[in-house]
């Protein structure tokens, strides 16, 4: 097998809905299709547009344009007061449509979805076919006015960048063998995590263009950022995935499988977060078995929304959506398994150790990751038969769920938590330092 053949694979699809709020309005109101339209928070000339249709964007009206200014540019612009509930409902509808083509692993925001490709899905022609199926399914099952741009890349960071490179209705793939030159023409600001303030800082250190940034070695990137973020970015931009310390992880073998979700405002409670974590684990475990892996590690991440006052008191980070937050993550290592019940016990035990207090009452993001994946063929069979027959139970559940849809059969406890359940297996827990994250 040639070098390029074995490494030129796509690990992720990043799906970004184009002009999402405005497109939903055009979906609901066919009479607005093809017309300049802006979604506004309230009907007043002094507020700003929160979304603009492609027809409005073509005139220079965009998110942040003052409504009075938009009316001056285009007196006949359609203005609509935004309805977040409707957008959330469409977001769910779109996620369902995407799932007909490929499971959704992460929902970084209301108009973005990430699919993790596994096994042969990672081969570029197959990945492209899945991406086209995603587009078709959104068009057919969620709405013909809804368009998305899809980025395909070896890691999530590059997939997000790729989704931004062609709009609307884009499909861009970034292959490891083409990196980093395939992104050398971008602006520094096109990199997720590089906002206005970071750009000023980079410029002050003499970096004003992508070619200058890409000319730095890992050491140089570390110094530039003065943190492990620089190391990570160095590897990501070259198509590698990297661990928390920024060290490269070999790309040939599947290392982890994860699902994450940004909670809608109405679910930002302890119970809501637990129900989501439970569901994400269920999904990840099912995928684990479908792709014939065992796992030896489970990590859970929670991000908590902070009030402005809490954020000032604490060391806080800003989510892409603008939410001030603090984060917590913990990983547990255990004997290889692939059954949902065992993984659920681990999750429950980790969950019970999440931080408590007024700053941790509003979880808005939950992530569950299975690491240390081991192919079934390399898994050491148990010396004694599984006394509770857990593997077989999970297999039966998968069959039913494949037949009747993902939510047919869950273990009791998707509903609020029985956190006091005793843990019957031994495992070690490792707190994971919460690093700078891009989404
Ligand atoms: Mg978008």
SSE order and pairing:
Elements: H1 3-7, E1 12-17, H2 20-28, E2 37-40, E3 51-52, H3 54-57, H4 67-73, E4 78-81, H5 84-99, E5 106-109, E6 112-116, H6 124-142, E7 148-153, H7 156-163, E8 171-173, H8 196-204, H9 210-214, H10 218-225, H11 228-236, E9 241-242, E10 248-249, E11 257-262, H12 270-290, E12 293-305, H13 308-313, E13 317-318, E14 324-337, H14 340-351, E15 363-371, E16 374-375, H15 390-404, E17 428-431
Parallel strand pairs: 2-4, 5-11, 7-8
Antiparallel strand pairs: 1-6, 1-7, 2-3, 5-6, 9-10, 11-15, 12-14, 12-15, 12-16, 13-14, 14-17
Helix pairs in contact: 5-6, 10-11, 12-14
Bound molecules: magnesium ion.
Magnesium ion binds at residues 16-17, 20, 111.
Tell me the CATH topology of the largest domain.
Alpha-Beta Plaits
Show unreliable segments.
Answer: 1-5, 403-439
What would you say the CATH architecture of the largest domain is?
2-Layer Sandwich
Oligomer: single chain
Helix content: 25-40%
Shape: globular
- The tally of helices reads 15
Rounded to the nearest angstrom, the distance between the terminal CA atoms is 35 Å
CATH level 4 superfamily of the largest domain: Reverse transcriptase/Diguanylate cyclase domain
Number of strands: 17
Architecture overview:
It is built from 15 helices and 17 strands. With 439 residues, the protein is an alpha+beta fold. The protein folds into three domains: 3-16 and 87-249, Alpha-Beta Plaits, CATH 3.30.70; 20-84, MutS, DNA mismatch repair protein, domain I (3-Layer(aba) Sandwich); 257-431, 2-Layer Sandwich (Dna Ligase, domain 1). The strands form three sheets. Strands 1, 5, 6, 7, 8, 11, 12, 13, 14, 15, 16 and 17 form a twelve-stranded mixed sheet that branches. The protein has a three-stranded mixed sheet with strand order 3-2-4. It has a two-stranded antiparallel ribbon with strand order 9-10. Helix 7 links the parallel strand 7 (148-153) and strand 8. Helix 10 (218-225) packs across helix 11 and helix 12 (270-290) packs antiparallel against helix 14. The two termini are 35 Å apart. The structure holds magnesium ion. The site of magnesium ion has 4 residues, from strand 1.
